[in-house]
Amino acid sequence: MLEKKIGFIGCGNMAQAIIGGLVNSGLIAPANILVWDRKESTNQTMAQQHGITAAESAEVLAREADILFGAVKPDAILKVLKELAGVLKKDALVVSIAAGVTLDALAGVLGYDRKIVRVMPNTPALVGEGMTSVTPNVLVEQQEVDEVVAMFASFGKAAVVSEKLIHAVVGVSGSAPAYVFVFIEAMADAAVLGGMPRAQAYEFAAQAVKGAATMVLETGKHPAELKDQVCSPGGTTIEAVKALEEHGFRAAVMKAMQQCMAKSQTLSKA
Fold first, then answer.
1. Suppose 84 and one of 47, 62, 125, 189 were both cysteines; which one would form an S-S bond, judging by CB atoms 3.0 to 4.6 Å apart?
2. Spatial distance between the Cα atoms of 156 and 150, rounded to a whole number of angstroms
């Protein structure tokens, strides 16, 4: 168990997922988690639901936190952290989940002597299956990096990624659930066309995607090898794969991700 005070400034869906993961994993004692959101009802709900502490103010929380999570909207994160910079503990670690806000921008308001970690979780964190990139600045010690990785691994998987790869992370993880949802919807539509009831079609399609992803993660086999195992000679599956290839399925996915990464680069410069 990590014996540090963990504070959350802002408590939207992602922060709630992180808090839930930390409490459920037993990694952090609820008494050591503090939260402050501008919506008082959110603070009270989180305190009642998880047994954590609702701080009196953002300033009070910042004074107590050993690790401070900046979990407000990207367009507000710099203003909020600038206001709190003067009351933070000297050795406090600041973790930002704000998309598109660079380590340099964060240091610009917090101070270039401050330990900062930039993270990018994705929405499956809400169901304990998140994928999070962890990007520390040079002042963060290895033990602290390991602690942050452990926190995010408590509700999915987490890995250290250099900041130059952040846009790739956006494409392959941050935005990727949306592509998968479109794929599931299309699969279900086809099943409905074949006569299957809508609710059942979504269940079959979603479980097929979940099961296939689990096979990739747990077997360690190349996706192409797993694909080949399903494609019997002259069978139904290879017929479907042929149609996907004819319609540029792989190219469409790669093009979509390239445009996603390009947009991410544009937004980070705005």
1. 62
2. 10
Predicted confidence (pLDDT) per residue in 118-143, tens digit:
999 999 998 989 999 999 999 999 99
Q: Kindly provide the b/e burial profile for residues 244-255, where b requires at least 16 CB atoms within 10 angstroms of the residue's own CB.
A: eeeeeeeeeeee
- What single letter denotes the amino acid at residue 96? S
Burial readout 196-209 (b: 16 or more C-beta within 10 A, e: otherwise)? beeeebbeebbeee
CB 98 within 8 A of CB 126: no
Q: Are 115 and 107 in contact (CB under 8 A)?
A: no
0.90 exceeded by pTM: yes
Please give the Cα distance from 171 to 167 (Å, whole number).
6
- Give the 3-state secondary structure of residue 11: coil
**111: which residues sit within 8 A by CB, 6+ positions away?**
85
**b/e burial code for range 51-77 (CB count within 10 A of at least 16 → b):** ebbbbeebeebbbbbbbbbbbbeeeeb
Nearest in space to 78 (alpha carbons), one of 33, 118, 136: 118
- Judged by DSSP in three states, 270 sits in coil
Rounded to whole angstroms, the Cα distance separating 119 from 142 reads: 16
CA distance 237 to 228: 10
Distance, CA of 150 to CA of 111 (rounded, Å): 26
